[in-house]
Every structure is written in C-alpha cells, then in structure tokens.
C-alpha cells in the first residue's frame, strides 16, 4: 500500500530562478564597505547610457543630413533616365505617354543638357545649360519654390521660348549679376545651317530670375533655358538629349526599372540616379558604415567597465560564494547570479540611453534654439546649410540594432568574471576567513 503522507521530493530550482535573480539584485545594492563596487556599477551604467544615446543621436543626425541632401539632389536631378534610339524615333511621343502611365511615375520631362561658356561683367566661366519646358519647372520643388512669380511667368515667353534664362544664385553672386542683366552664352559647336555647321555661336540672353536648389554646386553650374530656345541655339531642333523621370519612391527606384523598360520598348537605355550619383551614393554608404563601427566600439568600451565591477564584486563576495556552494548551489547557479548582476547594469544603461537619445533627437530643434537663445550665438547657420535646424531622422531599425549591440556587449562583458566566480573552490575561499 502506498504511503500518501510521505513528503514529496523537493524539486530543485531551475535556471534563472527567483532566488538567483533576487541575489543578483541584492548584490547590486552594495553596502557602504563595498562602495567601490557600487561606484563602478554607477560608472558602467552612465557610460553605457551615454554611449547608446550618442550612437543613436549621431546616426539619426547623419540620417537626417543624408535625407535632406539626397532629397535636394534628387529634386534637382531626375530619379530615372531614358536615352537611346527612342529619342529620335517617330514613336517618341507615344513612348513618353506609355512611361507616364507606369504606376508610380510622377513626372516625365524631355531635356537638353549642353556645356557652354557664359560671360557677364568681364567674368567668363563654364556652365551646363539645361533646356526644359516651362511646365517642368514644378518638378524641381526647391527650384520652383525659390523663384519669384514674375520669373516663373516670364520663363518660356516669346518667340522660340524667348530670351529669358534662370541662373543659380551662387553663380549670380560669383559674376555680380542681378535680375534683368544681360548675359552672353557661347556654344562651341554652334547650330547647323544649309551651309553646314556655323561653328561657335554666341547670343545675349537676360537673367529672368535667380533660383536656389539648396545645393551650391548645382546653383553655380546650371543655367535653365526654355527647351525650344535651347534646341534652336545648340542646333538640336526637334531633338532631346534625355527623358528624365521622377517617381513616387526614389529610394525604391529599382522596382520601377522593369516596368519603364517594358513601356519604352527596345532600343532604349534606362538608368537611375544611383548610377549617375554613384560616387556620392557610395560615399554616403561608406560614411554610414564607418561611423557605425566607430561608435559601436564606443559602446563596447563603455560596456567593458562592467568587467571591473563584477570582478570586484566576486572578490568581495568570495565568502558568500563558498557558503552557497556548501549548501548545495551549483557552479552554474553562481555563474548566473553574477552574470545577471552585470547584465542588469547593461540593460538599465541601454534603456536609459535609448530614452535619452530618442528624446534628444525628437526635440533637437527646440534644444538648438534654446541653446542659441541662452548663449547668444548661432549654432547652425541657416544661410549656409539652407536649413532652419539640425535635421534628425530616427530610423527604428538603427535603434533596434543599437539596443541589441549594447545588450550583447554587456552580456559579453559580464560572462568572463561570472565564469571565474563559478569556478571558485569553496574550501580555498573559506580557508582564510
């Protein structure tokens, strides 16, 4: 007959049980005589929090600048381009209509781009003359918003598009021009005639308006001329150099390549902005990777402080470890107690750093303006950077990987001293107590 009154065997506590967690948290609340451990724990916590906050802030600010700069460059230039035989085929207008019908294509603009020399006020310099239709000015949002209503209205008015051109503000400052001034444009090739090519051709135009694209290099290099006038002046009547397109999602431009190729048909070369701006795009990616690695090392170095704290904690708790071992605690339990003590510092520091970094990024404009008012200095010159405040774009993916990296490094720093604690011989630990 089975004895039902017999006590049931005691089931040993599992991994990460309540007593292990409670002991780990208790060890973090060090007594006065163990103040060195508490101080190192506080330093480790602050170091991790600041490193995580800095990493999130720097990556968000870099992403904000990258987004602003890329947005301005892609506003001035196209997202996709079509070149090849389609530009001279009788089916050209029908191809443009098919491209415009592709889902996600926002605008389709025929362009002429030709290098020329310009002269005004005794200054001669090279420039790229871009011929475009007046209605296509609106596809360049930064340029269109910077032009006066009079400049927009006069552009393209007159015979063959008129004689008004739009000049970048940086180029106007360089040449000492103002709206209404004459400017001589010289074409090295000239136009074709019944007697052959006329060679170099020079014509006087007038500054119809000053534009600002937000990128000084573009403002200094490009002049806008009505498409019909550019075709006439450069001897390209009825000819387009390229068809430029803008799409709804320029960062996902690869998904539009196949539909546009199908719409254009054979005999056309379809490229996108990543190829035309390959050097710039590559530099942005290298910069992003390099800064992520450097700042990731800062987080790793901050997490290494946990090693010092756990080493001192193990040294101070040698007697406790020996007693725990003699009453039945396993080496793995000892390892988990000290591992959780170190990991807790890392988790708390990571959470604090995430909160500080996100609050800073989300309120960076207000913080900047407050510091400028408090210090009486301009920290971010809007005239230079064309922005009212420092841009910050918080990427949830970046935040996630920063948190994961910080936690991994904190756990990695906590493991070696915890492993050493689990290997302490209780007899040796109690010999000199």
Overview of this structure, please?
The chain has 18 helices and 11 strands. The chain has 433 residues and is of the alpha+beta class. The chain folds into 2 domains: 18-69 and 282-431, no CATH class; 78-273, no CATH class. A 6-stranded mixed barrel has the order 2-3-9-4-8-5. Strand 6 and strand 7 form a beta hairpin. The longest helix has 42 residues, at 35-76. 34% of the residues are buried.
Strand content range: 15-25%
Low-pLDDT residue intervals, each spanning 5 or more residues: none
Determine the N-to-C terminus distance.
51 Å
Mean pLDDT: 82
Percentage of residues assigned to helices: 40-55%
For the record, the count of structural domains works out to: 2
Report Rg.
34 Å
Question: H/E series, N to C?
Answer: HHEHEEHHEHEEEEHEHEHEHHHHHHHHH
For the largest sheet, list the strands in their spatial order: 2-3-9-4-8-5
How many helices?
A: 18
Short description:
By secondary structure, the protein is α+β, with helices and mostly antiparallel strands. It has 18 helices and 11 strands. The chain folds into 2 domains: 18-69 and 282-431, no CATH class; 78-273, no CATH class.
Task: Offer a few descriptive terms.
two-stranded antiparallel ribbon, alpha+beta, 55% helix, 2 domains, 433 residues
Task: Give a topology summary.
Blueprint: H1 18-28, H2 35-76, E1 80-84, H3 92-100, E2 105-120, E3 123-132, H4 141-146, H5 149-154, E4 164-168, H6 169-175, E5 182-187, E6 192-193, E7 196-197, E8 201-211, H7 216-221, E9 222-226, H8 227-233, E10 242-247, H9 254-264, E11 268-272, H10 273-276, H11 278-303, H12 305-316, H13 318-326, H14 331-362, H15 364-375, H16 382-385, H17 396-422, H18 426-431
Parallel strand pairs: 3-9, 4-8
Antiparallel strand pairs: 1-10, 1-11, 2-3, 2-5, 2-10, 4-9, 5-8, 6-7
